[in-house]
């Protein structure tokens, strides 16, 4: 019997399994939808009315430790969005504290980019990056406000995915 001969082992008959990257694994992040992220994050949306003052809005932003408020009509319909950036610009234009007496309607962004629940997360991230905004209200098929996605939510989700991928690779290497 030659010295290089090795008797067959159980794994010799098992199909070879490869964990290398492929189109499916590399595009897996693109299959995550806005609704998936909202399901994990929750559907809380903090809003104010168009007639509320900037002073009130600033207090809400500070208390809630958030960067934007959705501005809604009494019916709940989306009227606009008021971000920290909108407020800072107006304070700079009006020269200080006088701006705090203005209403949300005076300062809010009226042309609001919104997300659909079925939109892929990667598409949402691309739109947020290209539009240079950090908050996006989510509407359902009836145009009802169902959530708010922030750039931080998307980044946090992606970091969790990367940690999971790293753990899988480590387990593959260690065995």
UniProtKB/TrEMBL annotation:
The answer to keyword Ribosomal protein applying to this record is no
Q: What organism does the UniProt record list as the source?
A: Salipiger pallidus
Per its UniProt record, what PANTHER family does this chain match?
A: CBS DOMAIN-CONTAINING PROTEIN, CBS DOMAIN-CONTAINING PROTEIN CBSX3, MITOCHONDRIAL
Report TM segments. none
Family annotation (SMART domains)? CBS
The cross-references to InterPro entries, in alphabetical order and at most eight, read: CBS_dom, CBS_dom_sf, CBSX3_CBS_dom, Diverse_CBS-Domain
Q: Would you tell me the protein name for this molecule?
A: Inosine-5-monophosphate dehydrogenase
Coiled-coil-forming residues are none
Q: Which SUPFAM superfamilies match?
A: CBS-domain pair (SSF54631)
């Amino acid at each position: 019997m030659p010295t290089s001969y090795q008797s067959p082992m159980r794994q010799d008959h098992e199909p070879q399994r490869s964990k290398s990257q492929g189109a499916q694994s590399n595009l897996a992040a693109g299959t995550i939808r806005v609704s998936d992220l909202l399901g994990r994050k929750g559907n809380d949306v903090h809003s104010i009315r168009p007639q509320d003052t900037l002073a009130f809005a600033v207090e809400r932003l500070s208390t809630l430790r958030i960067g934007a408020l959705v501005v809604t009509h009494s019916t709940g319909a989306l009227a606009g969005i008021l971000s920290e950036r909108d407020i800072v610009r107006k304070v700079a234009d009006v020269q200080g504290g006088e701006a705090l007496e203005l209403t949300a309607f005076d300062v809010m962004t009226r042309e609001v980019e919104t997300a659909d629940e079925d939109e892929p997360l990667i598409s949402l991230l691309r739109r947020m990056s290209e539009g240079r905004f950090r908050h996006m209200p989510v509407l359902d098929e009836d145009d009802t406000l169902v959530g708010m996605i922030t750039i931080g939510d998307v980044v946090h989700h992606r970091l969790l995915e990367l940690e999971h991928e790293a753990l899988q690779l480590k387990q593959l290497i260690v065995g």
